Amino acid sequence: MTRFHLEVRVKxxxxxxxxxxxxxxxxxxxxxxxxxxxxxxxKVMDLEIDAPDAETAVERTEEMCRKLLANPVTEDFxxxxxxxxxxxxxxx
Amino acid sequence: MTRFHLEVRVKxxxxxxxxxxxxxxxxxxxxxxxxxxxxxxxKVMDLEIDAPDAETAVERTEEMCRKLLANPVTEDFxxxxxxxxxxxxxxx
Lengths: 92, 92
Known about the structure:
- The structure is a homodimer.
- By secondary structure, chain A is of the alpha+beta class.
- Chain A has a single domain (2-87), classed as Mth169, Chain: A (2-Layer Sandwich).
- Chain A has helices at residues 19-30, 54-69, 87-91; strands at 2-12, 36-51, 75-84.
- In chain A, strands 2-1-3 form a 3-stranded antiparallel sheet.
- Chain A is elongated and about 50 Å long.
- Chain A binds chain B through residues 1, 3, 9-11, 21, 24, 27-28, 31, 33-51, 57, 60, 63-64, 67-69, 85, 90, and chain B through 1, 3, 9-11, 21, 24, 27-28, 31, 33-51, 57, 60, 63-64, 67-69, 85, 90.
- β2 (36-51) of chain A pairs antiparallel with β2 (36-51) of chain B.
């Protein structure tokens, strides 16, 4: 069993309203930041998963996205494998 | 002036409490997902920035992170340049 480090990005689907992004866009412009054309905000999740191999770790994480981490109606997700967690780090 | 697409990731600093990650970790385990060792949750922001060149776009985005997008005490940020926004897409 190896511990893998994965990153999940969950973003609002294109075209859907993103009030958090809109508010941040407005705040940036109010603070004088120039040239901001669009802001959209989602979540990034760092997961450490124990699995026999990298493929299983990615499959399990995608399953978690479908079941819990992302809203299938309003959000898209992507899963990236960042690597294995070092033994020492894993036990810390 | 070119429109650039950038991605900002803002994550809770290692060692700091992350209640959202803790709750998600607990929920995943309750739902029967095996092998989840750690979950930490941050934000991912997609920005479109009009700037004369890519270097300026990245610099401006880093400045926005220092001033507004990230909490300098509790969060770390990273900025990635994803590319230029196509003309058609920019006007949509």
